[in-house]
Design goal:
The chain is α+β, with helices and mostly antiparallel strands. Helix content is 28%, strand content 20%.
């Protein structure tokens, strides 16, 4: 069985009170869960569904392995 890693951005949505995930390399695939682990479990299922649908439709799936997304803190002077 082949294994591929995907970079996943995980963030807390205070308004909806859920954990939200984004998979940048898969057209910004996104899902959520009430706990961080539930969000990651849902993301794993969503990735598998995406890969299955892409395979059936002949859509190429980007290979991972290069630099992943990063979070950068920017300081902004407010007026």
């Amino acid at each position: 069985m082949a294994v591929q890693q995907f970079s996943v951005i995980v963030e807390w949505d205070a308004e909806d009170e859920v954990w939200v995930t984004h998979v940048p390399t898969l057209d910004r695939l996104s899902t959520y869960g009430e706990t961080r682990q539930a969000a990651l479990d849902n993301t794993r299922e969503a990735i598998l569904g995406y890969l299955e649908a892409a395979g059936k439709a002949g859509i190429p799936v980007p290979r991972t392995g290069g630099p992943g997304p990063s979070i950068v803190e920017l300081e902004v002077s407010l007026p």
